[in-house]
TrEMBL record:
Residues 76-142 form the Death domain. InterPro entries: DEATH-like_dom_sf, Death_dom. It comes from the Eukaryota. The lineage of its organism: Eukaryota, Metazoa, Ecdysozoa, Arthropoda, Crustacea. Residues 153-173 have a biased composition (Polar residues). One of its GO terms (biological process) is signal transduction. Residues 153-202 are annotated as: Disordered. This is Death domain-containing protein. It holds the Pfam family Death.
């Protein structure tokens, strides 16, 4: 082979040209990484998914790359979970029960629950894992996201307040899609003792359509000091929207939490339901025939044929879980009901069901008494202890 190269100087020169040619490789993102980490320290994972569609795109890119890495290889999802500070029990749970969205998004969901879960910490973990491929893939979106955002929490709060109170701020299709109701917790509206992370969304159509008129009256709007969680099934969806609208319209300082209005947050971080349940002041079950069936299926007193389809709203899917949490709380409190204040549908009429004799349903109000119930809750002493 050596003799062949000597006898063919033209070929030898061509190979030398290839060796010395300046072939562009992947860009060096090391010089940008430090700047991203500094700016990302003020950007929480929760805010990343609530303010901009690009935040979701970044997380899904990370998940696609990490999920594509074989478990046991460098930079797999377990490596990421460990660097993000997840407990070994959380890692085992994710390994055994991760759902269709994949293990990496479950890891990021659990990480988002941590107190200082910032974009900066996530970038440091990816750098430690030597996942330059991921950093390169999200680099352009990170530049857009971080360069467009303020570098301090105070600037961000001021900007959010200006956008919220501006009369010319019209709700677009993109805003409607991304409005998960989390802005209240981010901008700090509400009593921090009671409303730590609860999204008090007002994204139901009847409220969103009156956004401009509400902005004009914002100076006289009462500060939110309490919040209630509505829990219901599919057949109570319209009734729940009506109840939420009544409570919000009374301007008593009560925020209303409906899970369906916060679908993005729950789909990303399903554990949020446990945190929200602990943080709300009251839970209001909307008791309908479907609700009774959902919390006690296959009972003799319930018509099983009345519900055959899979519920589409998140509230219906979580109804039984919330019911179980209400029962557990009632037992922990020595059989005292502090927070559950049900509303009974008029369609039930005089129907009897053994669950209606439950102590947690003993404070039932009718639909016509929503205003009275809201007034009582508004005047009640604020809860200082999460039971």
């Amino acid at each position: 082979m050596g003799d062949y190269l000597v006898l063919n100087p033209a070929l030898d020169q061509e190979l030398e040209d290839v060796r010395t040619r300046n072939i562009p490789g992947p860009p060096d993102i090391g010089q940008h990484l430090e700047n991203w980490i500094v700016k990302g320290s003020h950007y929480t994972i929760k805010k990343l998914t609530s303010h901009n569609q690009i935040g979701w795109e970044i997380l899904h890119i990370i998940a696609r790359f990490v999920d594509g890495t074989p478990v046991g290889a460098n930079g797999d999802w377990k490596h990421l979970a460990g660097l993000l500070g997840l407990d070994i029990h959380d890692i085992i749970r994710i390994e055994n029960f991760s759902n269709i969205k994949g293990a990496t998004l479950e890891v990021l969901s659990q990480f988002a629950l941590q107190r200082n879960a910032s974009v900066s910490e996530l970038l440091k973990a990816l750098h430690t894992m030597e996942r330059q491929d991921i950093l390169l893939a999200i680099s352009s979106k990170l530049e857009v996201l971080l360069n467009a955002s303020p570098t301090s929490n105070q600037q961000d709060l001021s900007r959010a307040e200006q956008l919220r109170t501006s009369p010319s701020n019209q709700l677009t299709d993109t805003d409607s899609e991304m409005d998960s109701g989390m802005e209240v917790s981010i901008t700090g509206e509400g009593d921090p003792e009671n409303l730590q992370s609860v999204p008090l969304g007002s994204s139901i159509p009847s409220v969103a359509n009156h956004k401009a008129s509400e902005n004009k009256q914002s100076c006289g709007k009462k500060k939110l000091t309490k919040t209630v969680l509505l829990t219901f099934t599919q057949d109570g969806y319209d009734l729940a929207k009506n109840v939420a609208f009544q409570i919000r319209s009374l301007n008593l300082g009560i925020g209303v939490l409906i899970l369906e209005e916060n679908r993005d947050e729950l789909e990303f971080c399903s554990e949020s339901i446990y945190r929200w349940y602990q943080e709300v002041d009251y839970v209001i079950p909307i008791i309908t025939e479907g609700y009774l069936w959902q919390i006690a299926p296959r009972t003799a007193g319930t018509n099983e044929d009345s519900i055959q389809t899979e519920p589409t709203c998140l509230d219906a899917r979580y109804a039984r879980l919330i019911y179980v949490m209400m029962l557990e709380e009632y037992q922990r409190n020595g059989c005292l009901n502090y927070r559950v204040r049900p509303i009974e549908s008029d369609l039930l009429g005089k129907q009897t069901h053994y669950l209606l004799r439950s102590p947690i349903f003993s404070f039932r109000k009718t639909v016509n008494q929503v205003g009275k119930l809201a007034s009582i809750l508004a005047q009640a002493k604020s809860r200082t202890l999460i039971r």
